[in-house]
Write a structure and sequence with these properties.
Helices cover 0% and strands 34% of the residues. By secondary structure, the chain is an all-beta fold.
Length: 645
């Protein structure tokens, strides 16, 4: 339907007007409601001015760019441009397409110093409290807390373009006192080492290039920006998932490798690959071209010690007697490998162990020339005995030097020497001190070897021995015996006492005699007195003395007989030693006893020693028995010489 203008016609509110076409050339004012059943079309209309509310029941559409639906949605295919926006609630805005153009920044309502800005082309920044906090620049770098690249003098953090590098700096320069850090926090409940679920926090460094032996690393740099240390993860094999961890430090140069944990878990210090020693690949290996090795130092202010502990268990069970608990082995390169030992120090169980009871011993071994295995040379057992040459000694000595097939000599040998220039006369070469006391320094005795004249090394070594003891109420040793270089023996003080019966001084090498070696032994010397007895009647006085040298007895006597008329054979008794029984060997002899009262010497007396007895029998010169009446009142003196039994 069209509106056609009606000239001069007044249409009142009570009048109904029905027209085909209503044309209005000026202004059409309608005080009430205009109801149009069809379509109201505005031709060549520039503006629609509505004082009140325009209600469009099916929505409003402006050309092809704007559509306002009756349910409140707005659709815009073009660009919305405004000098400012304030109070726009976008909480329910969805499905927006196209661009939202802002000249500079988006400001937080009610907090105008917090904004997202576009300060330059291809640049986005975030501000709080009126200051820039983060920036994405035209290269794609992300900077936090800085507008320039972080450095030793610029603080902040930066992700380089493409996310290749993260830079974080406190920026205090060479006098900085504040640190910078990266903290990664997470949570994991699995306690299995290496399980993904166990990783509470992970720093993952990945080399996506699959070339074997390439690396990733953590670098540590000085204020100059030069690297001083590195921890390097080396991809030994990407396909086999084998890797090593390398620790490098610098010494006035680029960091060099100092230690490595290889793919088998071995710690290598001073080496880049594992070396076999003693027939195996050790878990910890140290190599060097100088004397530096391994040191363990305790620095506590007490009497505690440092400890290197070597242990042994039978898979959690008690060890047994002779179990080797630990070994220190020494191995040399024989041109083929490092598997042959030069020596070993071993510790083994030395008895039956139990709770709080672990008897042990130390064994010291060396390898002989021409051999590739060690042989035990010395042992310290659980009782403290030191055994050299064999570990089977069971005696009570604290030190045993034993000769075996494994010692330089087949006999026990102990050398004590003074090393240096040729000793001069009187120089002590060696000293053995036999001490006692609370700390073992009290002298009891000593043996010294002393040059008896000037030495000429290799041709003349004159030496004498001295044996000294400490007397009662003294603390210093006094020489008792000296054995000269020529073989003479001096007894300085005291006597030579042979305290065992039948033993003496053997002269067999000096003067052999027959097949009986006992004939060459001087086994006794003594002096004393003996008491005379008489066979018949009484003795007025008597005195007897003797000297015994070996078996030869010299018994002197003086006797005064009492008055007697007895005609029986007179003899005296009481010789100090029983005479030899067999007269054939000349063991007994007689003699002449002369009185001092001018007894008729031609008539006697002579005497005879009883065989296997202790009596002296008196005879006249003519061999007749001398009766007691013949000796009545006389004084006899004489010497009885005989062999003791």
């Amino acid at each position: 339907m069209a509106l056609t203008k009606v000239t001069g016609q007044v249409i009142k509110n009570t009048t109904d007007v029905t027209v085909g076409v209503l044309t209005v050339t000026n202004t059409l004012a309608v005080g009430g409601t205009v109801s149009i059943g069809g379509t109201l079309t505005y031709e060549d209309v520039t503006n629609v001015d509505a004082v009140g509310l325009i209600t469009a029941r099916d929505g409003i559409k402006v050309g092809s760019g704007i559509t306002l639906s009756v349910d409140g949605d707005g659709f815009f295919t073009g660009v919305i441009t405004a000098t400012s926006y304030s109070g726009i609630d976008l909480s329910d805005v969805t499905g927006a397409t196209g661009d939202f153009s802002i000249a500079d920044k988006i400001i937080h309502t009610g907090d105008t110093n917090t904004a997202i800005r576009f300060p330059a082309a291809d640049t986005i920044t975030a501000e709080t409290d009126g200051s820039e906090r983060a920036r994405i620049d035209s290269t794609g770098r992300v900077r936090i807390g800085c507008t320039a690249q972080p450095s030793t003098t610029v603080s902040g953090a930066q992700f380089d373009a493409g996310g290749k590098t993260l830079r974080i700096s406190e920026g205090g320069g060479t006098s900085s006192t504040t640190g910078a850090s990266v903290q990664i926090t997470g949570g994991g409940s699995n306690t299995n080492i290496g399980a993904a679920a166990a990783m509470g926090a992970v720093l993952s460094l990945t080399n996506c290039n699959n070339t074997d032996n390439n690396q990733t690393s953590i670098d540590f740099s000085a204020s100059s920006g030069l690297s001083v240390a590195k921890v390097i993860g080396k991809n030994d094999s990407h396909s086999s998932r084998n890797g090593s961890l390398i620790f490098a430090t610098s010494s006035a140069a680029a960091p060099a490798e100092r230690a490595r944990i290889d793919s088998s878990g071995r710690l290598l210090i001073g080496a880049t690959s594992s070396r076999g020693v003693a027939g195996g690949q050790s878990r910890v290996q140290i190599e060097n071209t100088s004397t530096e090795g391994l040191s363990v130092v305790r620095t506590s202010n007490d009497n505690g010690t440092s400890l290197i502990a070597i242990g042994k268990t039978r898979n959690g069970a008690i060890v047994q007697d002779d179990d080797v608990v630990g070994t220190l082995g020494f191995y040399g390169d024989d041109g083929n490998d490092l598997d042959r030992p030069t020596a070993e120090i071993r510790s083994a169980v030395d008895g039956t162990p139990g709770a709080d009871d672990m008897p042990g011993r130390l064994e010291f071994k060396t390898t002989a020339d021409g051999s590739s295995t060690t042989t035990e040379r010395m042992r310290i057992d659980s009782s403290g005995r030191v055994m050299i040459g064999s570990g089977t000694y069971i005696g009570g000595a604290a030190l045993a030097v034993l000769g075996t097939g494994n010692t330089p000599n087949a006999y026990g040998s102990l050398a004590i020497a003074k090393v240096g220039a040729n000793p001069t006369s009187g120089t002590t070469l060696a000293n053995i001190r036999l001490n006692g006391g609370s700390v073992g320094t009290g002298r009891g005795a000593e043996i010294n070897a002393i040059a008896d004249a000037n030495w000429s090394d290799g041709s003349s070594h004159p030496t004498y021995l001295t044996f000294s003891t400490v007397a009662s109420s003294s603390t210093s040793a006094t020489e008792r015996i000296r054995v000269h270089s020529g073989g003479n023996v001096d007894i300085k003080t005291g006597n030579l006492v042979i305290s065992t019966a039948g033993k003496g001084i053997d002269f067999s090498n000096a003067s052999p005699s027959g097949s009986n070696p006992s004939h060459n032994i001087l086994d006794d010397y003594e002096e004393g007195t003996w008491t005379l007895g008489v066979a018949h009647d009484a003795i007025t006085s008597e005195e007897g003395r003797y000297t015994k040298i070996g078996r030869m007895v010299f018994a002197t006597f003086e006797i005064t007989f009492g008055s007697s008329s007895n005609g029986s054979h007179q003899y005296i008794t009481g010789l100090p030693f029983t005479s030899q029984a067999n007269s054939d060997n000349g063991g007994n002899c007689g003699g002449v006893a002369r009185d001092y009262q001018n007894y008729d010497i031609e008539n006697g007396p002579i005497y005879h020693i009883q065989q296997n007895g202790t009596a002296i029998y008196f005879y006249k010169n003519n061999g007749q028995v001398m009766a007691a009446s013949n000796t009545s009142g006389y004084n006899f003196r004489g010497t009885a010489i005989y062999h003791a039994a």
